[in-house]
Specification:
Largest sheet: 9 strands, mixed
Strand order of the largest sheet: 2-9-5-4-3-1-7-8-6
Structural class: alpha+beta
CATH class of the largest domain: Alpha Beta
Radius of gyration: 20 Å
CATH architecture of the largest domain: Alpha-Beta Barrel
Number of strands: 11
CATH topology of the largest domain: N-terminal domain of MutM-like DNA repair proteins
Number of domains: 2
CATH superfamily of the largest domain: MutM-like, N-terminal
């Protein structure tokens, strides 16, 4: 799943190439992903509109178009964008294609077709799923420790679930939740109510440091290959059975709710109690 660091790299690569450009045409090449809420025919209505601005919040990308239109992309698990020449082979995973007036194409691909591309009026943006429920972005200016404690107070349950739901802080998914909790030395299934003040302080520091460091690293590694998923640099996520880079202990992999959680039982001590 693309998370805030991944999508910020995509945004900063595409902004200078697309903002100010005109979409000369667009089409849905595979069904189920495009959600056109304007009441107009998508391909006819979007043609000729310029891209005025591009922004990101959490795991959502926003393209503000001229004439009161917005393209909102929620890539979910396997979605992504590719900025390419039109003669490049069109893969089966491509679901929506935008023709740009500089001769390039912007292609949205999604192998599992779980993501969504919304075509909207600005007044419809807050009606789309996941928009209004998002907390502050994880790559924005950090909350102070006191502000973080206040924001955390209403939440209940396991700390990893609180991070990934996006209401405390947006842009953190399964991968970076594992990385943040490893950096903070916190067991992913520890209850929020069991956290000490010192543990909350470690969590607040890691929540902002880990994604920012990842973003800077991804900028160097990804380059123009924004369509590629780069996760080799992660310390624990996806590394079940391998040695922890901090202590050498074997990294655990626990599957629950169709999601794999990776952590080090030595660096992140705690009983596996999930009630």
């Amino acid at each position: 799943m693309p998370e805030a660091p991944d999508l910020q790299v995509v945004l900063e690569y595409l902004q200078p190439r697309l903002v100010g450009r005109v979409i000369t045409g667009a089409r849905e090449t595979r069904p189920l992903v495009l959600r056109n809420l304007t009441g107009e025919r998508f391909s006819d209505d979007i043609a000729g509109r310029s891209i005025v601005a591009m922004t990101r919040h959490g795991k959502l990308l926003f393209f503000e178009l001229s004439g009161d239109r917005v393209v909102l992309i929620n890539p979910m698990l396997t979605g992504g964008l590719r900025y390419t020449e039109p003669d490049e082979k069109l893969l089966k995973s491509v679901t929506v294609t935008f023709d740009i007036d500089d001769g390039h194409q912007l292609r949205y691909f999604d192998q599992k077709r779980m993501g969504m591309v919304y075509y909207l009026r600005p007044d419809q943006v807050n009606e789309t799923p996941r928009v209004e429920e998002q907390g502050p972005d994880v790559l924005d200016a950090p909350m102070s420790l006191d502000e973080f404690k206040t924001a955390l107070r209403p939440f209940r349950g396991e700390i990893k679930g609180i991070l990934t739901r996006g209401r405390l802080i947006s842009g953190v998914g399964n991968a970076y939740a594992d990385e943040i909790l490893h950096a903070a030395g916190l067991h992913p299934y520890k209850k929020k109510t069991a956290l000490s003040d010192e543990e909350i302080a470690r969590l607040q520091e890691a929540v902002y440091r880990v994604p920012l460091e990842a973003f800077k690293l991804l900028q160097e590694k990804v380059g123009e290959n924004i369509h590629k998923k780069e996760r080799r640099y992660l310390k624990v996520h996806g590394k079940g059975g391998k040695p922890c880079p901090v202590c050498g202990y074997e990294i655990s992999a626990i599957t629950a709710n169709q999601r794999v959680t990776n952590f080090c039982r030595k660096c992140q001590p705690g009983l596996l109690v999930r009630n």
